[in-house]
Prior knowledge:
The structure holds two protein chains of two kinds.
Chain A: H1 17-23, E1 74-83, H2 88-97, H3 109-124, H4 130-142, E2 156-159, E3 163-166, E4 169-170, H5 173-181, H6 185-190, E5 204-210, E6 219-220, E7 226-227, H7 230-250, H8 255-273, H9 294-298, H10 304-309, E8 317-324, E9 332-336, H11 337-342, E10 344-348, H12 354-363, E11 371-375, E12 381-383, H13 389-395, E13 401-405, E14 411-415, E15 425-433, E16 438-440, H14 445-448, E17 456-460, H15 465-475, H16 496-505, E18 510-512, H17 513-519, E19 533-534, E20 540-543, H18 544-549, E21 558-561, E22 581-585, E23 588-591, H19 596-599, H20 605-613, H21 616-637, H22 650-675, H23 687-713, H24 719-726, H25 732-739, E24 743-744, E25 746-747, E26 750-751, E27 776-777, H26 787-822, E28 826-827, E29 833-834, E30 840-842, H27 860-877
Parallel strand pairs in A: 8-16, 9-15
Antiparallel strand pairs in A: 1-5, 2-3, 3-4, 6-7, 8-17, 10-13, 11-12, 11-13, 14-15, 14-17, 18-20, 19-20, 21-22, 22-23, 24-27, 25-26, 28-29, 29-30
Chain B: E1 14-17, H1 20-30, E2 39-41, H2 45-49, E3 57-64, E4 68-77
Parallel strand pairs in B: 2-4
Antiparallel strand pairs in B: 1-3, 3-4
The structure holds magnesium ion (MG) and zinc ion (3 copies).
Amino acid sequence: MTVPKRIGKIKFGLISPQEFRKMSVVKIITADTYDDDGFPIEMGLMDPRLGVIDPGLRCRSCGGRPGECPGHFGHIDLIAPVIHVGFAKIIRKALRGACRECSRLMLLDKEKEMYLQQIRTLERLGQLSDEIVNKVFAEARKHKICPYCGAPQQEIKFERPLSYIEEGHKLTPSDIRDRFEKIPDDDIIIMGMNPATARPEWMILTVLPVPPVTMRPSITLESGQRSEDDLTHKLVDIIRINQRFQENREAGAPQLIIEDLWELLQYHVTTFLDNTVSGVPPARHRSGRPLKTLSQRLKGKEGRFRGSLSGKRVNFSARTVISPDPNLSINEVGVPLEVAMELSVPIVINARNKEAIKVFVRRGPDRHPGVNYVTRADQRRIKITSKNSEEIAEQIDAGWKIDRQLTDGDTVLFNRQPSLHRMSIMAHRVKVMPYKTFRLNPAVCPPYNADFDGDEMNLHVPQTEEARAEAEILMRVQENILSPRFGGPIIGGIHDYVTGSFLLTHGYKPIDREDVMELLKKFPPNEMPEPKGYLEDGEPYWIGKQVFSTVLPKGLNLTFKADFCLNCESCKHEECENDAFVIIRDGQLLKGTIDAEAVGAFKGKITDRVIKEYSPSVASEFLDRMTLLALRGIMYAGFSFGIDDEDIPTDAADQIDETTRTAKENVQRLIEAYKAGELEPLPGRTLDETLEMRIMQTLGKARDNAGQIAGRYLGLDNSGVVMAVSGARGSMLNLTQMAACVGQQSVRGERIRRGYAGRTLPHFRRGDMGAEAHGFVESSYKDGLSPTEFFFHAIGGREGLVDTAIRTSQSGYLQRRLVNALQDLEVKYDGTVQETRGMIVQFKYGEDGVDASRRDYASPDNVKRIIQKILKHGGAKS
Amino acid sequence: MTKFAVMDHESVPKHTLLSPEESEVVLRTYGIESPQLPKIHVTDPAAKEIGAKVGDVIKIIRRSPTAKQSVFYRLVID
Ligand SMILES: [Mg+2]
Ligand SMILES: [Zn+2]
Ligand SMILES: [Zn+2]
Ligand SMILES: [Zn+2]
């Protein structure tokens, strides 16, 4: 292995005209590219000395073939100097800081000494001297008379994009260059530059480097016509103007024409460097498309840095829309046949697999698990077609390699952006399927944060044994059920899975034999559980809890409160009349209801226990069966939600009206008390704040009361309540807002106050502090909102949208910075955290050396369980 | 200004100066060379307080919310 080299230092500077000439292999004087026979013209923009791109030719400068030759720079001698746009700002500062006569930096010697001292100190500390340099320029500019030659200074006005105007005259680049040339070296240092590597006059170009042809290759169109790169187009413009300029000047053209041409040369050089300078119209292609010039190649998301160096396109990958398939295992991914026939896995042929591989090769590329390419022992790659497949199948031998199409059971990596945590890329087993989407079990949506409203995901096929092994051992979905983020299962039931388990396991409704069989159809157990009892007609019956127990591993013991527990003042445990206390003994669900707390993503007490006490395989098996059963459960019970599920009886509606009316009256009374000066301020609050708080309180309570009234009429026979209570989707607050009262709308936690002078809307009197005038929405969504209510609701809603938009961009940037800082840290086998050089960052990972996903909540209950387990084992042995 | 005892402040963890033998043991335990250790400046108030010299190793025992106590070593640098 080669020893990695460390970059000690990077020095930035300007290139001098001499250096430009030194690195140039040819002076370009003609704007033509190719002659009539298609050969590059010498000293033209495609001079063969600038490098080779045509296959079969060799570079005239280095003798390399295309691909070997890196390309070589040429140069254009500009007839008159032009300003480099990138330095417009610094040129302005330097012009204002240097004397117009003697070019010395207009600071007193002792000031210069002081600033030099400060710059040196910062340099020694490895810090930037920008601030001091800015101060130097600011101070120098203040001198109206040069302290050295006494010349009076004139104000230099800067006009976008590149004009420097002194006494009403535009300074030509030559003038500026002349001034800069005279600046003494010592002054340049104080201006924050190193005279050896960056003289200020080098910011004015007299020589323009011509990039090698390798970075602006011409492409031959199908019609045989050559199409040149944008950079070449721009260079043609520059050379043409340069020539015209020279001709005119030699012919002694009038000053006005010369100035125009100079301006034009400046324009072309400017747009060659950057085609998005404000104030400069972008140079366009004949078609009207703006040209992509140097700066555009580097900048932005698609630019060289972010687009080509930090991120690249890869082979053996696919991307398409995702859709759900609950019949897949959580470890699987459904891959469209078309995708599977394009992607491939390399297999090396040996004596043992030769015959089996022959069968694949014979199938050719058009019959599914076929072969797309064969690589012979001499590394020649042959594309398999339906014509040559038979022939090649006979030729293959040990040492050859085939690219077999993706088939069921192959390991692939599946990914959804933004890849914020490691569970954003997991390894799945391929299941080739018809149609055009990737399919996944909805239980794996939470780690990817995926839904099916058009989300797309990427798939990558590992190409080596090592990659595959790593993917299978570390990245399989079942190995990532427990999230290192909070130590619990991030994979689990969502939506209907939770509702289904809830409906199946809640209560003790009898289920007859036929229905039990129907529920267990997808994974028939070897034998039926013992019947719970017998109906009057002698037929045996079972209950949902028993049916659910068939998916629980044997020997599982667990006791916990369901999500749906009301947190009664004194919990009655086993005797809970809501069936919210879950008891599992030896893999039998004895009491309680299975809901989000038991099997949901992010909660999943059962999943958590199974994975810690058994294994990831058992847990994935449990999740697969649980999801299948839950869906059977929800279908068995039947489940729907509609607009009439938000209906409440008339007397409930009356009661709600009553509460909101009294609340509004209470608000009125508070306002009157406030106006009468009878309101007692709360400690540490002003009177106004107190009033606002009391009003918010009153109205908040009104909404809660309305919700409670509605809640009394919405029981477990309401599907909205089932979803809210089981933790499947939505909350009781959502239901309250739909059925009873939407409540107070707010902006930054306060009632809405913005709008017109003294009032929120013209519908209200000035100074009205009442509930309606400040965004209290009395109606429910079902009833519909009044126009003013609707408006306030839109205000409150907009704040929410803006907040989420801001939050995602901010947290995205924070994430990027964190990852950049931490990505190379590694936990070594001795538990220390080290960075790439082997420098220790932590002596024990996280100070305690604990992997958050392996820890098992240090609770006394845990100790009890371990003792019980050991005792049981001991008993078995004796 | 009155000088106050840095080490007495409750937010300053316990710093102890290791003998050359003890530092050798630390390096051997982790299989590292001393430059791989985290650093502390000689002019650091806590380092000054215990009279550390450049090249010494300081053992720092901190309170940790997860591990109760965590041990850290730092190489004294200039
Ligand atoms: Mg989506
Ligand atoms: Zn070359
Ligand atoms: Zn002067
Ligand atoms: Zn309870």
